[in-house]
């Protein structure tokens, strides 16, 4: 099992806008470099890219949830 951690403190978003589908849904596979979400810090959005590959992603952070740097955003099998 691997984890994807937040690189920054801020607000976690699973999609690029409310009317767009999430970058990844629970159960999806993830490749190295895939964007899994965005972190907003003072009106700047930063892509969260996976540095590991895996299957069956499960998000530990909810959409629009405040997170701290180093917080677990998602688990991968």
Automatic annotation (TrEMBL):
<keyword id="KW-0092">Biotin</keyword>
<dbReference type="InterPro" id="IPR011053">
    <property type="entry name" value="Single_hybrid_motif"/>
</dbReference>
<dbReference type="GO" id="GO:0009317">
    <property type="term" value="C:acetyl-CoA carboxylase complex"/>
</dbReference>
<dbReference type="InterPro" id="IPR001249">
    <property type="entry name" value="AcCoA_biotinCC"/>
</dbReference>
<keyword id="KW-0444">Lipid biosynthesis</keyword>
<keyword id="KW-0443">Lipid metabolism</keyword>
<comment type="pathway">
    <text>Lipid metabolism; fatty acid biosynthesis.</text>
</comment>
<keyword id="KW-0275">Fatty acid biosynthesis</keyword>
<dbReference type="Pfam" id="PF00364">
    <property type="entry name" value="Biotin_lipoyl"/>
</dbReference>
<comment type="function">
    <text>This protein is a component of the acetyl coenzyme A carboxylase complex; first, biotin carboxylase catalyzes the carboxylation of the carrier protein and then the transcarboxylase transfers the carboxyl group to form malonyl-CoA.</text>
</comment>
<dbReference type="GO" id="GO:0003989">
    <property type="term" value="F:acetyl-CoA carboxylase activity"/>
</dbReference>
<feature type="domain" description="Lipoyl-binding">
    <location>
        <begin position="3"/>
        <end position="76"/>
    </location>
</feature>
<dbReference type="GO" id="GO:0006633">
    <property type="term" value="P:fatty acid biosynthetic process"/>
</dbReference>
<keyword id="KW-0276">Fatty acid metabolism</keyword>
<feature type="region of interest" description="Disordered">
    <location>
        <begin position="1"/>
        <end position="26"/>
    </location>
</feature>
<protein>
    <recommendedName>
        <fullName>Biotin carboxyl carrier protein of acetyl-CoA carboxylase</fullName>
    </recommendedName>
</protein>
<dbReference type="InterPro" id="IPR000089">
    <property type="entry name" value="Biotin_lipoyl"/>
</dbReference>
């Amino acid at each position: 099992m691997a984890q994807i951690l937040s690189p920054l403190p801020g607000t976690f978003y699973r999609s690029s806008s409310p009317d767009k589908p999430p970058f990844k849904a629970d159960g999806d596979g993830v490749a190295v470099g895939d964007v899994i979400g965005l972190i907003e810090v003072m009106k700047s959005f930063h892509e969260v890219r996976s540095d590991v590959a895996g299957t069956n992603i499960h998000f530990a952070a909810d959409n629009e949830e405040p997170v701290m740097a180093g917080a677990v955003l998602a688990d991968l099998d």
